[in-house]
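Ops channel
N.P.: pipeline sanity check, posting one input/output pair.
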């Protein structure tokens, strides 16, 4: 996200109206619903986590303890338990 100067984008009458509410304040204007992306949609993160979680579950099925998985993947024991539970349901 980048900042842009309102006086270079908005028509003067709209800028004056906005200044009545937030004069000199940084204002975030959210995207409209049709322009929003779901989490992980713009990067490969979602796929990377899916692959990692599948590996964790595979290691667990191969006999590795949750404690070892926690150390191996640098995750809390609770996170490992949650991932294994989710993978079992799939």
């Amino acid at each position: 996200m980048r900042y842009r100067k309102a006086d270079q984008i908005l028509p003067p009458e709209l800028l004056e109206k906005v200044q009545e509410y937030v004069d000199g304040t940084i204002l975030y204007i959210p995207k409209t619903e049709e322009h929003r992306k779901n989490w992980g949609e713009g990067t490969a993160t979602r796929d990377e986590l899916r692959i990692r979680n599948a590996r964790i579950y595979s290691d667990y099925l191969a006999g590795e303890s949750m404690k070892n998985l926690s150390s191996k993947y640098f995750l809390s024991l609770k996170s490992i338990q949650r991932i294994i539970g989710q993978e079992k349901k799939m």
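N.P.: looks fine end to end. The chain is about 50% helix and 0% strand.
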